[in-house]
Amino acid sequence: MHLNIKHFLAVTISFSLLSSAMAGVMETEEQARHRFQLELEFVQCLANPNYLNFLAQRGYLREKPFVNYLKYLLYWKEPEYAKFLKYPHCLHMLELLQYEHFRKELVNAQCAKFIDEQQILHWQHYSRKRTRLQQALAEQQQQQQQTQAPSHGNTTSK
Amino acid sequence: MRFISHACALRKRGQTVMAAAEKPTKGKLLAALDDIEVLSRELIEMLALSRTQKLPQPGEDTEQILELLVQRDKEFQELMQTAVEQGKVHQEMQALEKEVEKRDSDIQQLQKQLKEAEHILATAVYQAKEKLKYIEKARKGSISSEELIKYAHRISASNAVCAPLNWVPGDPRRPYPTDLEMRSGILGNMSNMSTNGVNGHLPGDALAAGRLPDILTPQYPWQSADVSMGILPPHHGSDFGLEPPGHNKENEDDVEAMSTDSSSSSSDSD
Question: Does A83 reach chain B within 8 Å, measured CB to CB?
Fold first, then answer.
């Protein structure tokens, strides 16, 4: 997947909003709300390794303002903000993105693919575990029934 | 004979000179014994000689020797007394030393116990402090169980953290916002927004038109000027169930085709 250049435009607009807010210019409540939504969306998009690869290949991850923005986005880890996140994987990606080595590595498509695969496998972890547990439970019940059946036979014969 | 008595006198003088150097009593005793031995031998020799020679020797030597002998004997007795007293003192000293040893070992034991006690107390205090720290931490981070359950439901029902049970490779659902979802959000529509001019219009419009997925942009009833504080949107239950991306397609005029740098598109599709 890829997004078009307008996406970057969106990010720069949010940057400018942010910088104006930081510069002490009062942003209106409307603007603040809007910025909140923007950042919420953007931070969750970071959960997508393909998007990260996209950003890396276009060199955004090398720019200092962007790196600072990523650091600023760490506020989503606080519980009062994190409760709005639907895709929590993004927080882990955000943490990893703080490291320059990771940002450099993301330029490779191999790297992004690997992360994607591992992420999906991890995503399936709970369902796999659940199916295993259910199987184990079913087997156990079967065994119980089997052990009960002969004893029933004995008691009735007596 | 005179020579011998002379030698004894010299030795005595030497002894007095050495008294400052504290000659041990044992040595003194032995020396005195030696002298007595020598003197008595001399006396006996003299007596024997006078008997054989039948010549009355001048009594001076005999007297002298006798005197010396008596003197030595007296000295010997005195030395014995001293030795006895010294022995007593030595015994006392030993007893006291034993006492001292005992006290020393008592002190050492007390020291050990004190150290142990200190160690135990220090551990206890440390653990108590740690506990208090964690209590404080837990209190700070306390969240109502209802909120936790709400959030857990939110991230699980949409299959954001746990794959749907019927997921097979080829299913387009993912643990992250997909291509389509991203384009349908605010960020994907920023260009529209700039043409419309005013912020905040488009999300309302899109929501009203039912086109925006409320997955990414839930509507928050804003409470304060603070940017982020808002409660969860009212319609979060079933709407967060994952809908296939086909439902919320935007009009795709402004979506351009992308370059094919990454190979992910192949992994997404069948």
Answer: yes
Gap from A110 CA to chain B (nearest CA, Å): 9
> Is A59 in CB contact (< 8 Å) with chain B?
no
- ipTM of model: 0.70
**pLDDT of B162 over the 70 cut:** yes
> In this structure, is residue A71 part of a structural domain?
yes
Rounded to whole angstroms, how far apart are CA atoms B59 and B27? Answer: 32
Per-residue confidence (pLDDT) for residue A1, from 0 to 100: 43
From B136's Cα to the closest Cα of chain A, the distance in A is 17
Q: What is the pLDDT of residues B91-114, one digit of tens each?
A: 999 999 999 999 999 999 999 999
Which of the residues B264, B268, B269 would you substitute to probe the A interface, choosing the one with the greatest number of A C-beta atoms within 10 Å? Answer: B264
Higher-scoring residue by pLDDT: B155, A140: A140
Partner residue opposite B228 with nearest CB, options A9, A36, A126 = A36
pTM of the model: 0.49
pLDDT in tens, B14-71: 555 444 346 788 888 888 888 888 888 888 888 888 787 766 656 677 788 888 888 8
CB nearest to B262's CB, from A50, A81, A84: A50
Of chain A, the percentage scoring pLDDT greater than 90 comes to 34
Instruction: Specify if A118 maps to a domain.
Output: yes
Per the domain annotation, does A85 fall within a domain? yes
Contact B176 A9 (CB under 8 A): no
Query: Model confidence at A23, in pLDDT bands (50, 70, 90)?
Result: low
Domain hosting A81: range is: 2-133
DSSP state of B174: -
From chain A, pick out residues whose CB is under 8 angstroms from the CB of B174.
48, 120, 123
Number of folded domains that form chain A: 1
Distance from CA of B131 to the nearest CA of A (A): 23
Listing DSSP states for chain B in one string gives -HHHHHHHHHHHHHHHHHHTT---HHHHHHHHHHHHHHHHHHHHHHHHHHHHH-----HHHHHHHHHHHHHHHHHHHHHHHHHHHHHHHHHHHHHHHHHHHHHHHHHHHHHHHHHHHHHHHHHHHHHHHHHHHHHHHHHHT---HHHHHHHHHHHHHTTSSS--TT--BTB---SS--HHHHHHSTGGGHHHHHHH-STTHHHHHHHHTT-S-TTT-----B-SSSSS-BPPPS--TGGGS---GGGGPPPGGGPPP----SSHHHHH--
> Does residue A68 form part of some domain?
yes
